[in-house]
Amino acid sequence: MPIPPKVLIAPVTVTPSKPLTPSHLKGLLWADTMHRATAQLAEVTFRYSPTTYHSTEQTLGFWEFVDRVEGDTDYSTHSEEQIGELYVRYRAADTRPGAEALRPYAEAVEHGWVHPAGARVLRLWAEHYARLGMHDPGLERHQPPGLGLEEMIERLRGAGLGIDQRPTGGPVYLDATRYGLPLRRIVSYDGRPNYLACALRELLPVVAEFDEVVLLYDRELDPDYQLLERVLAAHGPTVRRVPLGRVPIDGRITSARHGGWQDHSAGALLGAALPDHSPEALRLGMRLYFIATLGPGDKQSFRHDLLHQSLRRAERILARSWDAAGPPAPPPSEAVGRHRRDHLHVDPYRLTTSLLGRGRSAPDVTLLKEVYL
Q1: Strands of 212-218's sheet, edge to edge?
Q2: H or E stretch including 239?
Q3: Are the beta carbons of 343 and 240 closer than 8 angstroms?
Q4: Is 329 helix (H, G, I), strand (E, B) or coil?
Q5: Contact 247/302 with Cβ under 8 angstroms?
Q6: Do 56 and 195 form a contact (C-beta atoms < 8 A)?
Q7: CA-CA distance, 71 to 64, in Å (whole number)?
Q8: What is the pLDDT of residues 66-101, one digit of tens each?
Q9: What are phi and psi of 134, to 5 degrees?
Q10: Which residues neighbour 127 within 8 Å (Cβ) at sequence distance 6 or greater?
Q11: Other residues' Cβ atoms within 10 Å of the Cβ of residue 272
C-alpha cells in the first residue's frame, strides 16, 4: 500500500482582540475545507496556534493597554464586540507602549499565560467553530512554537538568511536578497518580534517533515509570504502560497482595527441564521457563500441576502442528498482528488463550486459529512 504524502496546512492566524469578521470567516472556512478535503488523500497536519502569535506587539500592546485603561476587569461575560471596541480604542491611540512595558507580558506569554480578554475571545471563537463544524486546532491550548526567538535568529544567520544588527543598536532582518526580495525587518532593536518572526519560529523547525506546505493568507500580506515561501522552501518541502482577498463591507475593505464589523461579526451572523436553518445547512451554507460565492478575490461586498440564499440552497442540496437513490457513490477520496491540479492539497473553490449548478447530481452524503458538515 503506498505511503500517503504528508501535507502541512498553515493559515494566517487571527489574533484574539476583536470579533471574527467576514474576511476572517472566509479564510477560516477556506482553510478548514482544504484541511478536511485534503485529509481524504494525504496525511495532513493543520497548524494554527494562537500561542505563537501572542508575543507580537499588536497583541501584547493591546493587553498592556486594557490593563492600563480598564484596570482589574472581569472579562468573563464580555462579548467579542465589547473587547473589539477596546481594541479599536487601542489602535486609535497616539502612542504605543515601549519594550519595557511589554517585557513582563512577553515573558508571561512564553510560559503559557493568556490575558483574560484574549482568553475570553478564544472561548467565544471555540463556540463559533463548534457551530460551524470547523476543526478546532487548539484555540485554548498552550501550543508554543518549536524555536525560541534567539534560536530562530541563529538558524536564519546560519543559513545566510538573517542579519542581526542588535549589537550595534539596529534590528534583525530577514535577508532573502539572493532571491531578488527586499530586506525585511522581523525583530526590533529592543527585541520585539513581528508576525513574520513568529511564523518562522513556528514553521522552520517542522517543515522538513512534509512533502508540501500550504500557506493561506490575506492578499495584503503577499510580500511577507513570498519571503516566508523562500525561507521554508530552502529547507526541502514544496511550498504553495494561497492568497485570499478580504471581503469588502459596503464596497470598502477595512481592517478590523477600525471597527465597522457591527452586524457582520461571526456571532451576529450565526445568531441571525440559527433560528431558521438546521445545523447542517448552516455549516454547508456558510461554506457555499464564503468559498463558492465570494471566491478567492475581493470584488464582491458582503451581502446578507446572498448569504441567506446560500443557506437556503444548502437546505435543498442536503434534502436531495438524503433522498438520493442510485448506485453507490465513489469514495470521497475520488470525488476530491480531481480538484488538486498539480499540487497535493485540494482546492476548496473548485471542490465547493462543483456542488452547485443546475442539473448536477446530488452530492454524496459521505462527502458532505467528511468535508462540509
Answers
A1: 43-46, 6-11, 212-218, 238-244
A2: strand 238-244
A3: yes
A4: coil
A5: yes
A6: yes
A7: 10
A8: 999 999 999 999 999 999 999 999 988 888 888 899
A9: -90, 145
A10: none
A11: 15
